[in-house]
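Service request form, structural biology core

Requester: graduate student, group of Dr. S.
Request type: structure prediction, single chain
Budget code: on file
Notes: please return the result as structure tokens.

Sequence provided:
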Amino acid sequence: MKLKKARNNYMIRKFEPPFLGLNPKSMMYGDELLDLAIYADQLAEEYDIGVTFTAPFVDLANIISKTSNLFVNAQYMDGIYPGRGMGYVLPASLKNIGVDGVILNHAEKLMTVTDLVKAVKIAKELGLHTSICCDSVEEASLLAHLHPTTMICEPTSLIGTGTTSSPEYRLLTRKAVHDVDPNILISQGASIKNGNDVYNAIKDGSDSGGGSSGIFMVDNPKAVILDMAKAVKQAKADFYLNGKRKD
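Core staff response, request fulfilled:
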């Protein structure tokens, strides 16, 4: 299944779980990051999996222009329309260059509920996928009422520690979200660093696996991305049928 681009319009691109999520934050940029994006793009086609690639704002357009299969995400955006907004991230400008989605409320870029509601509303109007981050089970339940594409469930205390969230946390957050909206995809994050972590996250109910520092702060990021892509492919065979979980 080769994923086709639908850039620069107001149609939202569809993809099936499970998927691999890659987020360099500000650890990497420029040509070095582009090289990894192209590599991940090739793996997405070779392994027939969805791959989201979240990049710094200045690198987004270049990555989009040189890849065909990635779902390219912005790390953040503000809930504003064209007009006043000096220094803000304009959603319409992200859509204009072909961005597919946006990460909102990350632990390193927290948002007020008011601002989050505005951003989600505009993202949906533009046809951007929304991935909302949450910390606790209670927060997962609350923010699920915004009906994003994906809820990224990760305890803030575990981010960057090398310790992944427990199976109990994964079960409870998945239930909390799906009690509100069973169509929301679940991404379990925090300190996922290899293919085994990715596979276990999906086994425990996540619709994706991937990481940040566990990929982009190591000596050989391509080896880690390959390991994770293979894990997603295997998890897809073991736990999914026609884009739906077998359970």
